[in-house]
Amino acid sequence: MKLNLYNIALTGLLITGIFNQVAIADEGAKLFKACEACHSIGAGRRIGPDLKGITKRRTNDWLVRFIQSPAAVLKSGDADAKAIFKEFNNVPMPDNALTTDQVNLILAHIDGGKGGAAEVDPKLALMQHRIDSLIATNSQQDILAGYDLFTGKRRLENGGAACIACHNATYNNISKGGNLAKDLTKAYSLLGGFTGIKGLIGSPPFPSMAQTYKNKPVTDEENAYLQLFLKSTDAQNPATPIIAKAWLVYPAFLLSLFIAFVIAAIWFKRKRLSVNHDIITRQMRYSK
User: Fold this and answer.
1) pLDDT for 115-150, tens place per residue?
2) What is the pLDDT of residue 167?
3) CA nearest 131: which of 226, 224, 195?
4) Do 154 and 148 form a contact (C-beta atoms < 8 A)?
5) What is the CATH number that goes with domain 2-112?
6) DSSP letter for each residue of the chain
7) Which of 130, 141, 178, 192 is the most exposed place for a label (fewest CB within 10 A)?
8) If you ran DSSP here, which 8-state letter would residue 36 be given?
9) Domain locations in the chain?
């Protein structure tokens, strides 16, 4: 009887342990979703490194500190952080408001993770085939479709903001984009090609961008058009361009010249005539 009770208790503990492991794995997988834009687990480099085996290459303490605040670790002069930053085109990893426990859940997921990509829903297979075809064909028409989406000439299907509101991308020597966020002219090279751009647009890792598109995501087809457009801007500009915002600079320069001229004219008049000149002239006129 005692042996049966012992077996029952042991079985219960094992089942509880299994359920706990499944719950931990599920929680880690959910948290890792925010990382997928830049990282895979065994599926190769993206914007950042492939994380397969990372827990064997770095200590837990270092990983927790770096995942929570890569900027702080980099600023401290850490050699590994500086090497990673340089290897991945000096693209900064944003800080993450994660607790130590949450980071460890992500690390546990990475240890047991399979690849970096989710299984393709059969219902989406046809769309995926179309997107693959768009990328492979790389036609001028599709590049222009990406240009129209980037500049807002064509509205995004779900009503999200056009990229040009915050970003510039120099195309055909024209730079009329926003400067609130990073210039994307060389994004194709900096982010590691199509995969990096796709991940950045599909799962934005930056808080402001994530909030902007939270309920208005860019569709996969629109994502593909934008990828093609940014590849084209990259090819057109072998070196990182100096944004020539003549449309803003020239009027500002002319306005500055005008203001300087007005100030100089006023100052010259005041310097040429005495302070009391008007008073004396008026008195002489009335005294006649």
Assistant:
1) 444 454 566 677 778 888 888 888 999 999 999 999
2) 92
3) 224
4) yes
5) 1.10.760.10
6) -HHHHHHHHHHHHHHHHHHHHHHHHHHHHHHHGGGTTT--SSS--SSS---TTHHHHS-HHHHHHHHH-HHHHHHTT-HHHHHHHHHTTTPPPPP----HHHHHHHHHHHHH---SSPPPPGGGHHHHHHHHHHHHH--HHHHHHHHHHHHTSS--TT-PPPGGGT----BTTB-----SS---TTHHHHTTSHHHHHHHHHS--SHHHHHHTSSSPPPHHHHHHHHHHHHHHHHH-SSPPP---HHHHHHHHHHHHHHHHHHHHHHHHHHHS-TTHHHHHHHHHHH-
7) 141
8) T
9) 2-112, 123-236, 250-287
Helix (H, G, I), strand (E, B) or coil at 155: coil
pTM, two decimals, is 0.58
Residue 118 half-sphere exposure toward CB, CA atoms < 13 A: 10
Lowest mean pLDDT among 7-16, 22-31, 139-148, 193-202: 7-16
Return the amino acid letter for 279.
Answer: I
pLDDT tens digits for 125-134? 777 788 888 8
Mean pLDDT of 266-288: 60
CB atoms within 10 A of CB 101: 9
pLDDT for the residue 141 = 94
Residues 225 and 145: beta-carbon distance below 8 Å: yes
Confidence band, pLDDT 50/70/90 cuts, at residue 86: confident
Give me the amino acid identity at 61: D
Residue 23 tokens read as 């719950």
Q: What is the pLDDT of residue 149?
A: 94
Element (H, E) at 162: none
Both ends of the chain: CA-CA distance in Å? 134
Asked if 2-112 and 123-236 have one fold, the answer is: yes
